[in-house]
Amino acid sequence: MKMNSILVSGTSGFIGHHLSSRLGNRCTPFDPRVDFDYGSLPKNEITTIIHLGAPSNRDHEAEEKIVDTAKKIFLGIHKCPWVDVIFSSSIRVFGQGGVISANEFPIPKDGYGRGKVTAEGIFRQLSDGRNVDIFRISNVQGIDHRGNYRGVAGIFSNQSKNGKISVNGDGSSVKDIIHVSEVVDSIIWALGKKGRGVQTHCLGRNAISLSELSELISTRTGSEITYTNEDPYDLSVWYDEETHLREYGKPIFVEGILDELLM
């Protein structure tokens, strides 16, 4: 079977499914955890590996799994300069929390964040002229291919159907939320931009506290808001206005995300 020039890992996931639907027959799903002969990819055309696949941030082995897969890809392609890489990292690399600027140094506080930072470093070693785009993606919202609501806005919107929204903690935690279509737009943008070398991009859009977000949904739906015990996996972090990648398309703000989820 002839492989297309875009290989995408994690196509069964939230972002991966939306991306593969947009790319259509231009992409080939692949699993980087299994042995693959990257040297067999045709040298007369650029191949791009879009690595989206990752364990949950609640997986106790997340760090090891993320790093092992990145190493496997690196070892397979480091002698194949015709293979570009797009890697989905995470805003969770900034475990220090608070507002993040372009020059901020990541200090991850959990295994997932540490794994992503290590994987970023692995892919940055591919500084031989090929394109390597690292996207530090914030909290992705929207509806997946099974019709499930995703992200914190999705969780609250789904809860509102039963008349109650349950907020972990006191509601002061800030999330930087972005719609899945914007993440896909950014990846498509990177596919079309050549000759950049290794670049890191911050991908967020809407900094909003859990209390503000729940109140927006409550106002629209008449749902009651309750507060529960603090979430041990919570991370209050957002990108400042100058740090966002702005070149990938029209922004979708919080109201637009809720329009989709609450329709």
What is the compact description of this entry?
With about 260 residues, the chain is α/β, with parallel strands linked by helices. The protein contains seven helices and 14 strands.
What's the SSE blueprint?
Blueprint: E1 6-9, H1 14-23, E2 27-29, E3 47-51, H2 62-77, E4 83-90, E5 98-100, H3 111-124, E6 132-137, E7 139-143, E8 149-150, H4 151-160, E9 164-168, E10 174-179, H5 180-192, E11 198-203, E12 206-209, H6 210-221, E13 224-228, E14 237-239, H7 254-261
Parallel strand pairs: 1-2, 1-3, 3-4, 4-6, 5-14, 6-11, 7-10, 9-13
Antiparallel strand pairs: 7-8, 10-12
Helix pairs in contact: 1-5, 2-3, 4-6
What distinguishing features does this structure have?
single chain, 263 residues, alpha/beta, Rossmann fold, UDP-galactose 4-epimerase, domain 1, 2 domains, six-stranded parallel β-sheet, four-stranded mixed β-sheet, 14 strands, 32% helix
